[in-house]
Protein backbone atom coordinates (compact mmCIF):
# COMPACT_ATOMS: atom_id res chain seq x y z
CA UNK A 1 0.00 0.00 0.00
CA UNK A 2 1.42 3.35 -0.99
CA UNK A 3 0.77 6.39 1.21
CA UNK A 4 0.31 8.58 -1.86
CA UNK A 5 -2.52 6.30 -2.90
CA UNK A 6 -4.11 6.83 0.51
CA UNK A 7 -3.87 10.60 0.19
CA UNK A 8 -5.41 10.49 -3.27
CA UNK A 9 -8.24 8.35 -1.91
CA UNK A 10 -8.98 10.92 0.77
CA UNK A 11 -10.04 13.36 -1.92
CA UNK A 12 -12.20 10.88 -3.84
CA UNK A 13 -15.89 10.44 -3.23
CA UNK A 14 -15.54 6.67 -2.76
CA UNK A 15 -15.17 5.40 0.82
CA UNK A 16 -11.77 4.27 2.01
CA UNK A 17 -11.08 0.61 2.52
CA UNK A 18 -10.91 -0.67 6.07
CA UNK A 19 -7.14 -1.12 5.79
CA UNK A 20 -6.72 2.49 4.69
CA UNK A 21 -8.81 3.72 7.61
CA UNK A 22 -6.79 1.62 10.08
CA UNK A 23 -3.58 2.96 8.52
CA UNK A 24 -4.71 6.57 9.00
CA UNK A 25 -5.79 5.96 12.63
CA UNK A 26 -2.48 4.25 13.41
CA UNK A 27 -0.64 7.19 11.90
CA UNK A 28 -2.66 9.70 13.93
CA UNK A 29 -1.99 7.88 17.20
CA UNK A 30 1.68 7.46 16.23
CA UNK A 31 2.03 11.23 15.82
CA UNK A 32 0.25 11.88 19.13
CA UNK A 33 2.49 9.42 20.99
CA UNK A 34 5.60 10.92 19.36
CA UNK A 35 4.58 14.44 20.39
CA UNK A 36 4.07 13.33 24.00
CA UNK A 37 7.39 11.43 24.00
CA UNK A 38 9.42 14.28 22.53
CA UNK A 39 7.67 16.84 24.73
CA UNK A 40 8.64 14.80 27.77
CA UNK A 41 12.23 14.54 26.56
CA UNK A 42 12.43 18.29 26.01
CA UNK A 43 10.94 19.01 29.44
CA UNK A 44 13.41 16.63 31.08
CA UNK A 45 16.36 18.09 29.21
CA UNK A 46 15.33 21.62 30.16
CA UNK A 47 15.09 20.50 33.79
CA UNK A 48 18.61 19.10 33.47
CA UNK A 49 19.78 22.46 32.10
CA UNK A 50 18.29 24.37 35.00
CA UNK A 51 19.25 21.98 37.78
CA UNK A 52 22.59 20.47 36.82
CA UNK A 53 25.72 22.58 36.74
CA UNK A 54 28.89 20.72 35.87
CA UNK A 55 27.80 17.50 37.55
CA UNK A 56 26.85 19.06 40.89
CA UNK A 57 23.93 17.56 42.76
CA UNK A 58 20.74 19.44 43.49
CA UNK A 59 20.64 20.66 47.06
CA UNK A 60 17.30 22.46 47.38
CA UNK A 61 14.30 20.53 48.65
CA UNK A 62 12.00 22.12 46.05
CA UNK A 63 14.34 21.08 43.25
CA UNK A 64 14.42 17.56 44.65
CA UNK A 65 10.62 17.46 44.61
CA UNK A 66 10.65 18.69 41.01
CA UNK A 67 13.12 15.96 40.02
CA UNK A 68 10.88 13.35 41.67
CA UNK A 69 7.80 14.69 39.87
CA UNK A 70 9.51 14.78 36.48
CA UNK A 71 10.89 11.27 37.01
CA UNK A 72 7.41 10.01 37.87
CA UNK A 73 6.05 11.70 34.71
CA UNK A 74 8.85 10.12 32.69
CA UNK A 75 8.02 6.65 34.03
CA UNK A 76 4.26 6.96 33.65
CA UNK A 77 3.88 9.04 30.48
CA UNK A 78 7.06 9.75 28.51
CA UNK A 79 8.53 6.23 28.48
CA UNK A 80 5.23 4.51 27.62
CA UNK A 81 4.75 7.08 24.83
CA UNK A 82 8.14 6.11 23.43
CA UNK A 83 7.13 2.44 23.34
CA UNK A 84 3.76 3.26 21.76
CA UNK A 85 5.55 5.41 19.16
CA UNK A 86 7.85 2.51 18.29
CA UNK A 87 5.04 -0.06 18.14
CA UNK A 88 2.73 2.08 16.02
CA UNK A 89 5.57 3.24 13.78
CA UNK A 90 6.61 -0.33 13.02
CA UNK A 91 2.97 -1.29 12.41
CA UNK A 92 2.56 1.63 9.99
CA UNK A 93 5.77 0.71 8.17
CA UNK A 94 4.64 -2.90 7.78
CA UNK A 95 1.07 -2.02 6.82
CA UNK A 96 2.24 0.64 4.36
CA UNK A 97 4.87 -1.60 2.80
CA UNK A 98 7.64 0.89 3.54
CA UNK A 99 10.39 -1.64 4.30
CA UNK A 100 13.17 -1.46 3.05
CA UNK A 101 12.86 2.19 1.93
CA UNK A 102 16.11 4.07 2.53
CA UNK A 103 14.38 7.08 4.10
CA UNK A 104 12.73 4.76 6.64
CA UNK A 105 16.04 3.14 7.58
CA UNK A 106 17.57 6.59 8.15
CA UNK A 107 14.50 7.60 10.19
CA UNK A 108 14.77 4.45 12.32
CA UNK A 109 18.43 5.22 13.02
CA UNK A 110 17.48 8.72 14.20
CA UNK A 111 14.64 7.32 16.34
CA UNK A 112 17.09 4.81 17.82
CA UNK A 113 19.38 7.73 18.73
CA UNK A 114 16.44 9.54 20.36
CA UNK A 115 15.52 6.38 22.27
CA UNK A 116 19.07 6.05 23.58
CA UNK A 117 19.08 9.71 24.57
CA UNK A 118 15.76 9.19 26.36
CA UNK A 119 17.29 6.28 28.26
CA UNK A 120 20.22 8.46 29.28
CA UNK A 121 17.88 11.23 30.45
CA UNK A 122 15.83 8.73 32.46
CA UNK A 123 19.00 7.41 34.08
CA UNK A 124 20.10 10.97 34.81
CA UNK A 125 16.77 11.66 36.54
CA UNK A 126 17.17 8.52 38.64
CA UNK A 127 20.72 9.47 39.63
CA UNK A 128 19.67 13.00 40.50
CA UNK A 129 16.84 11.67 42.64
CA UNK A 130 19.16 9.20 44.39
CA UNK A 131 21.94 11.82 44.66
CA UNK A 132 24.31 9.64 42.64
CA UNK A 133 26.70 11.01 40.07
CA UNK A 134 26.56 10.08 36.41
CA UNK A 135 28.70 10.92 33.43
CA UNK A 136 28.07 14.40 32.07
CA UNK A 137 28.15 13.09 28.48
CA UNK A 138 26.24 14.24 26.56
CA UNK A 139 26.41 17.77 27.88
CA UNK A 140 22.94 18.84 29.04
CA UNK A 141 23.27 22.11 27.10
CA UNK A 142 23.19 20.30 23.75
CA UNK A 143 20.33 17.89 24.42
CA UNK A 144 17.36 20.14 23.48
CA UNK A 145 19.15 21.14 20.27
CA UNK A 146 19.88 17.50 19.38
CA UNK A 147 16.26 16.50 20.03
CA UNK A 148 14.87 19.35 17.92
CA UNK A 149 17.29 18.70 15.04
CA UNK A 150 16.48 14.97 15.13
CA UNK A 151 12.75 15.68 14.99
CA UNK A 152 13.26 18.16 12.14
CA UNK A 153 15.21 15.51 10.21
CA UNK A 154 12.51 12.90 10.85
CA UNK A 155 9.73 15.23 9.67
CA UNK A 156 11.66 16.11 6.51
CA UNK A 157 12.33 12.44 5.76
CA UNK A 158 8.72 11.38 6.33
CA UNK A 159 7.15 14.23 4.38
CA UNK A 160 9.52 14.27 1.39
CA UNK A 161 10.79 10.66 1.32
CA UNK A 162 13.88 11.87 -0.57
CA UNK A 163 15.82 8.61 -0.68
TrEMBL record:
It is an enzyme of class 1 (oxidoreductase). Its cofactor is heme b. It catalyses: protoporphyrinogen IX + 3 A = protoporphyrin IX + 3 AH2. It is found in: Cell membrane. Its EC number is 1.3.99.-. Binds 1 heme b (iron(II)-protoporphyrin IX) group per subunit. It is a multi-pass membrane protein. GO terms for biological process: protoporphyrinogen IX biosynthetic process. The chain crosses the membrane at residues 20-49, 77-95, 101-121, 142-160. GO terms for cellular component: plasma membrane. Keywords: Cell membrane, Heme, Iron, Membrane, Metal-binding, Oxidoreductase, Transmembrane, Transmembrane helix. GO terms for molecular function: metal ion binding; protoporphyrinogen oxidase activity. Pathway: Porphyrin-containing compound metabolism; protoporphyrin-IX biosynthesis; protoporphyrin-IX from protoporphyrinogen-IX: step 1/1. Its main location: membrane. Belongs to the HemJ family. Catalyzes the oxidation of protoporphyrinogen IX to protoporphyrin IX. This is Protoporphyrinogen IX oxidase. The lineage of its organism: Bacteria, Pseudomonadati, Pseudomonadota, Alphaproteobacteria, Acetobacterales.
